[in-house]
């Protein structure tokens, strides 16, 4: 703050400059407040819509399993929105809502593990020895496959007899503040849902067989809260992926439930990962409600590099903005393979022979150093590619317009430059198979959970699957990774968040 004396010592020019600076600061704060108010209004409206879907009478008649999955998604969405609203509010909530149900005590028959938290020193600041006068006990529910246990956290109370100073160890930070689940139980729920593709209503039955029926609404709240807490980690992983100059991209359809319509609509899970020859092993999934190219543009932002993808038109606008297109030889081969399987075409068989020779060379150079890989590609693969292009051009002049073989030839000829850029750069792969392999777990999930319960649920699933699949790519056990991340995340400084990314994470020594 500037006091009156300082103001009196300023000339007119300095006062104008100061006024302009203060006005600029006020405008910036006003803009920040407007953005916050707008976001709060958006979240409040979304919460009202979700509550109407959950509690109001619905004319749509959904099957029992669909209704179960919808309720799971809504419960998780509601708790996630509430948490975001608390973060946006200037003051965190001090009191629970008056209608919040009282938590039932954990069953006494469950085995208990006692964990004691005591001060590091029992000597008071005045020099006197502290005296233990009591303790606070909180219980948290833990789970290992098939077995529930209870962690009893005992925090002793110590007081100085002379100055009456009370000393007590702090409450350990948790992902869900004042909640009963341990990081191990939360990791189990998330891994089962997003890695093993078990909906929460199935997990509810599994937990019931283990001795404690946890309502799926409670499980959904845990999932929603964890989704909010893990999002900064996924954002950091995305930033690291976008630092690489060669990326793969692909997309696959996923059904998404539309509660207002009583049926599902087609959504898409977009997949992005560094090139197969890059040193980073990671994948980030991005859930969107359509296949529009704007989703890829929004994800990549200002990134300018080389993108391996198929011939989907949604990527075309990216190439006009400075991104280099890299073709997928596997897609070109697939056109001829389908033709040969259907009609035993001799032209298709010859094309497969040429492409097979290119792949044989790629198998040989896969593990070689980049410079040696480039030299072998130039010496051996380039002549084959040139011969294939000349052969395709000659065959295209002979076949009828609009025929199946003409379409197969046109696909490769139109994209020939993109298909053969890998011959000039040792870091560029021949195809997009590396990315397609990362979509396979999603295909398995589709056959189990059938559809996403909402747009938020799809994005939450994408975030969790990004971390779990990246952990697997780096050789980690997804459960061990996520349990440790959820344990450390509440106290991890933002400046050291990268330590929890799958490619940097290391299992702590016991």
Automatic annotation (TrEMBL):
Residues 466-503 form the Transposase IS66 C-terminal domain. Signal peptide: none annotated. Residues 178-459 form the Transposase IS66 central domain. InterPro entries: IS66_C, Transposase-related, Transposase_IS66_central, Transposase_TnpC_homeodom, Znf_dom_IS66. Residues 122-164 form the Transposase IS66 zinc-finger binding domain. Residues 88-97 have a biased composition (Basic and acidic residues). Residues 88-114 are annotated as: Disordered. It holds the Pfam family zf-IS66. Residues 42-115 form the Transposase TnpC homeodomain domain. PANTHER family: BLL1576 PROTEIN. This is Transposase. It comes from Cupriavidus alkaliphilus.
